[in-house]
Specification:
- With 245 residues, the chain is α/β, with parallel strands linked by helices.
- It has one domain: Vaccinia Virus protein VP39 (Rossmann fold, 3-Layer(aba) Sandwich), CATH 3.40.50.150.
- Helices cover 38% and strands 21% of the residues.
- The protein contains nine helices and nine strands.
- Helix 1 crosses helix 4.
- The longest helix has 27 residues.
- InterPro entries: S-AdoMet-dep_MeTrfase_Alr7345, SAM-dependent_MTases_sf.
- Keywords: Methyltransferase, Signal, Transferase.
- This is Methyltransferase.
Length: 245
C-alpha cells in the first residue's frame, strides 16, 4: 500500500468514527462533573440507571451551551447540566413553584437561573441551544390551560425559545403500543409515537432517537413508581431539531 493510499484510508476511518469519538469524549469529560462532591449521594446512586453522561453527549450539550430545563424536580439533571455547560454556558431551570433546593444551588452557581413560570411557559432572556425535559412530558398531558393541554403549549413555547437549529430533547416512560396518551394519568407513561406526532406538529423534526434507556423486561403494564419497576422502566429518548429556516 502506498503512502498516499494509507493517508486516504486513515482519513476515511477518521470520518467514519468521528461521531463516536466525539460522543465518547463528551462522556469522559463529564466524569469530573458526576464525581463532584457537591452532588447528593442519592443522585450518584441513580447514575447507573439514568446514564446522565451519555444523555448529555447524545443531546449535544457541551461547554458554552445555553439550556432551558423544564420540570427540574429536585435538580438531578440541573446540577449535571450546570457542570456540563461550564462558566461560559447557562442553565435556566423552569419551575412552577418555589424550589428552595435549586435556589440555594443557584446562589453558588452563577451559570444557573431558577425561573418561575406558569404551565406551558418557557421564559428565557434570549433563544437557547437546548430545551431539555426528562420524565415530564406525560405529566404535561395531564394538565390544561383553557382548552389546551400543557404539552401543546410547551411544544410551541419550546419552538419559540430555541435558536434556529436548536434541540428539543425529551425522555419519558414508554407506554404499550397503541396506548397513545391514554395512560398518562394512571401509569404515568406515554407512547413515543404520540409525542413525535405532537412535537412535529409545531414545526420540529425528529432528528434521531436512542435506545440507551430501553428495558425489554418492562411490559408497559405497571405504573412507573411501582415496586420492581421503578428506575427500570422502558424509556424512549427523542432528539428533535428546530429547522434553521
Amino acid at each position: 500500500m502506498t503512502r498516499t493510499t494509507l493517508r486516504y484510508a486513515f482519513a476515511v476511518t477518521l470520518m467514519a468514527t468521528s461521531g463516536a469519538v466525539i460522543a465518547a469524549s463528551a462522556v469522559v469529560n463529564l466524569k469530573t462533573v458526576l464525581a463532584d462532591p457537591g452532588r447528593p449521594d442519592a443522585d450518584k446512586v441513580r447514575d447507573a440507571d439514568r446514564k446522565p453522561a451519555e444523555l448529555i453527549a447524545f443531546a449535544g450539550v457541551k461547554a458554552g451551551s445555553t439550556v432551558a430545563e423544564l420540570g427540574p424536580g429536585g435538580g438531578y439533571f440541573t446540577r449535571i447540566l450546570t457542570g456540563a455547560v461550564g462558566a461560559k454556558g447557562h442553565v435556566y431551570a423552569m419551575v412552577g413553584r418555589p424550589s428552595p433546593v435549586l435556589s440555594d444551588y443557584a446562589a453558588t452557581h452563577a451559570n444557573l437561573s431558577v425561573v418561575s413560570i406558569q404551565p406551558g411557559e418557557i421564559n428565557v432572556p434570549a433563544p437557547v441551544d437546548v430545551v431539555w425535559t426528562t420524565l415530564n412530558y406525560h405529566d404535561f398531558k395531564n394538565n390544561k390551560v383553557g382548552d389546551s393541554d400543557v404539552a401543546a403549549l410547551t411544544n410551541a413555547a419550546a419552538f419559540k425559545a430555541l435558536k434556529p437549529g436548536g434541540v428539543y430533547f425529551i425522555v419519558d416512560h414508554q407506554a404499550a403500543p397503541g396506548a397513545g396518551t391514554s395512560v398518562t394519568s394512571t401509569l404515568h407513561r406515554i407512547e413515543d409515537k404520540a409525542v413525535i406526532s405532537e412535537v412535529e406538529a409545531v414545526g420540529f423534526k425528529l432528528e434521531t432517537r436512542s435506545a440507551l434507556l430501553a428495558h425489554a423486561a418492562d411490559d408497559h403494564t405497571l405504573a412507573v413508581r411501582e415496586t420492581g419497576i421503578r428506575g427500570k422502566t422502558d424509556q424512549f429518548i427523542l432528539k428533535f431539531r428546530k429547522p434553521k429556516k
